[in-house]
Design goal:
Radius of gyration: 27 Å
Structural class: alpha+beta
CATH topology of the largest domain: Thrombin, subunit H
Number of helices: 9
Distance between the termini: 53 Å
Largest sheet: 7 strands, antiparallel
Number of strands: 29
Oligomer: single chain
Shape: globular
Helix content: 10-25%
Number of domains: 4
Length: about 475
């Protein structure tokens, strides 16, 4: 149905053209007229072709060699994605999840030229990354690059094209419309809303450009839903430009952290509605956070940040509030104007660095498991029990850790009577155990599972890696 409607639109836009197709005198193929026909009507085919010509050559196919620890051992796998060149120097924007844990990045350009690339920086919170093409010294071509457009100027119904490399294919174009300009995704809208489109975004399209009819990049394709029709989501170009600027300068986006959890004034999903039409509600504060230490309470209404009035009437307004807080200067006092019990009070607090949002990982091959540092932004449940420490990230099945009844998400408290708080603690104990494997091949492991301590005996006499 969508394709039928699309071609109906094409027919309307090209109304007034000749009844039979004109042929190109040189190629013998059907000639596409200028964007404006002789009658002054817009030829949609040429609009699409012009827009494609501006961005398609800048779209790159990306192959990444990635190290992963989820299966209980370090494995290397190849994944593919897309990207778009945004500068003559060879800067490429893609998704964080495309280059996450990359040990090697290779790109295939539009003209068939392969190039290695280096990750300049990435940001998990917005799922964006910036990579740099390693242009060979003998490369004489001119790198095509796309121009960023204004995502704020979009309207629902505007035509767009999703470009990229779906399913590992080199590159393709799909066409559709903007279905929603400011889609809020509850688990993926920390600092930014999304552009929703019905242009097909398939696996492998991630990181490719979403392009308007003027041939400008107005979003970076990130995720799609295959069932129930084509539903795709892209990061708006306004967010892309903000993040890329930070990645260029610092290699990361070190957000400020306040520990404030916010709720809109009209929360339809929870069926909670607060009186008034200004401010944003504090739903909760994180433990040991700057907001909690400053005395901010649940159901406080934040009226202003450093004197600037703020309002989040609906869920769609929350990312802007979180962004304003996340961009506050770190280690510098900020002021919240809070309405509590009908009175406005001033509360001073000091945001601090959010820091890493995912823990580091370590492989213990003979134990057939991998471990990971606890990070509050990566796994809040583990952080609730242990603010600092190490948990089991992956377990090989069959394997020694699995046989010992150890499980993913177990928090390691001690091994052989030695307290474990860091990956280095695990590394040291593991190396010592392997050195003494000829005389002793068992260790006692104390873990915390769902708040309860358990003791396990890990027998690593069997070498599952050789099987």
């Amino acid at each position: 149905m969508k394709r039928m409607l699309l071609w109906m639109c094409v027919g309307v836009l090209t109304l007034g053209c000749a009844a039979g197709p004109a042929l190109d005198a040189q190629t013998g193929e059907e000639a596409i007229p200028d964007a404006m026909s002789a009658t002054g009507s817009l030829d949609f085919r040429q609009v699409v072709r012009n827009a494609k010509a501006k961005v398609f050559p800048a779209t790159v196919f990306i192959l990444v060699l990635q190290e992963s620890h989820e299966s209980g051992k370090k494995i290397t796998r190849e994944i593919s994605g897309s990207g778009v060149i945004i500068s003559p120097a060879g800067e490429v924007v893609t998704n964080w999840h495309v280059v996450d844990k990359a040990v090697e990045v290779r790109c295939l350009l539009y003209d068939g030229t392969p190039m290695d690339a280096t990750v300049v920086g990435s940001d998990k919170d917005t799922d964006l990354a910036l990579i740099q093409l390693d242009v060979p010294g003998d490369y004489t071509g001119e790198l095509p690059h796309a121009v960023m457009g204004d995502s704020a100027a979009l309207n629902e119904g505007d035509f767009v094209m999703a470009m990229g490399a779906p399913w590992g294919l080199s590159r393709s174009v799909s066409i559709g419309i903007i279905s929603c300009c400011d889609r809020y995704l509850r688990t993926n809208s920390e600092y930014s809303l999304w552009l929703q489109t019905d242009a097909a975004i398939s696996p492998g399209n991630s990181g490719g450009p979403l392009v308007n009819t003027a041939g400008e990049v107005i979003g970076i394709n990130t995720r799609g839903i295959m069932r129930g029709g084509d539903t795709g989501f892209a990061v708006p170009s306004a967010t892309v430009e903000m993040i890329v600027s930070q990645l260029r300068q610092h290699g990361s986006v070190n957000w400020s952290w306040t520990g404030l959890r916010l709720q809109p004034l009209k929360d339809f999903n929870r069926n909670i509605y607060f009186e008034g039409d200004s401010g944003v509600i504090v739903a909760a504060t994180d433990p040991s956070s700057p907001a909690r230490q400053a005395g901010v309470l649940p159901e406080d209404r934040i009226m202003a940040i450093n004197g600037q009035p703020v309002t989040a009437e609906f869920e769609e307004h929350l990312p802007a509030m979180r962004l304003a807080l996340a961009r506050l200067p770190k280690r510098a006092e900020a002021m919240l104007t809070i309405r509590r019990d009908g009175e406005d009070i001033e509360v001073a607090f000091t945001p601090r660095e959010k820091g890493e949002v995912e823990g580091d990982e370590l492989e213990c091959p003979r134990w057939n498991m991998t471990v990971k540092t606890i990070n509050q932004f990566d796994n809040e449940d583990l952080y609730f029990y242990r603010k600092e420490g190490v948990s089991i990230f992956g377990i090989k099945r069959p394997g020694n850790a699995y046989n010992a009844r150890l499980r993913e998400q177990d928090i390691i408290l001690d091994i052989e009577g030695e307290s474990v708080t860091t990956l280095e603690d695990v590394r040291r104990i593991y190396d010592r155990a392997i050195e003494a494997i000829d005389t002793k091949h068992k260790v006692r492991v104390v873990v915390l599972r769902n708040g309860l301590e358990r003791q396990m005996v890990l027998d690593f006499s069997k070498d599952y890696e050789r099987e």
